[in-house]
């Protein structure tokens, strides 16, 4: 029988691969298009997914990184592609980062998933709980990407 954490990490990787497979046939140009009635584009959604997962872990553990601080200005809550600059990670860079992120999280936190921290929003107090929340969030943005693709 697999241990419970192995199952969680397999879910994180599987759902991430679902996101990456949906954007596999999207071009850099298409990733920039904001269809009518949408606030963001595919590139923004990818960056937001990446940022959100690390941000929740950092909020819980209070271990902050310069990576998330830099990404906040482009992909944080309430931002839009209007905030993008030449320094904003490209569509291809974001796909690479997203592919690596589950591996990085597993390597960094596999032995700390059940460690208890002071509770944050929604009474979450373990990294395991945070990852479950980020899987749900990622699914919402996966649907946003699917909807955007229908309007390209």
From TrEMBL:
Report domain DinB-like positions: 14-145
Its domain of life reads Bacteria
Name the UniProt record assigns to this protein: DinB-like domain-containing protein
Task: List, alphabetically, the SUPFAM superfamilies matched.
Answer: DinB/YfiT-like putative metalloenzymes
User: One short Pfam family name for this protein?
Assistant: DinB_2
């Amino acid at each position: 029988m697999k241990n419970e954490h192995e199952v969680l990490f397999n879910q994180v990787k599987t759902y991430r691969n679902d996101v990456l497979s949906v954007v596999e046939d999207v071009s850099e140009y298409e990733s920039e298009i904001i269809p009518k009635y949408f606030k963001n584009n595919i590139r923004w959604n990818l960056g937001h997914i990446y940022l959100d997962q690390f941000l929740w872990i950092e909020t819980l553990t209070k271990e902050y990184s310069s990576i998330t601080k830099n990404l906040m200005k482009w992909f944080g809550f309430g931002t839009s592609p209007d905030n993008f600059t030449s320094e904003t990670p490209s569509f291809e860079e974001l796909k690479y980062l997203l592919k690596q992120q589950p591996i990085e999280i597993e390597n960094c936190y596999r032995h700390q998933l059940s460690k208890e921290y002071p509770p944050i929003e929604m009474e979450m107090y373990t990294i395991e709980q945070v990852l479950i929340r980020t899987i749900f969030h990622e699914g919402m943005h996966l649907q946003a990407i699917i909807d955007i693709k229908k309007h390209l």
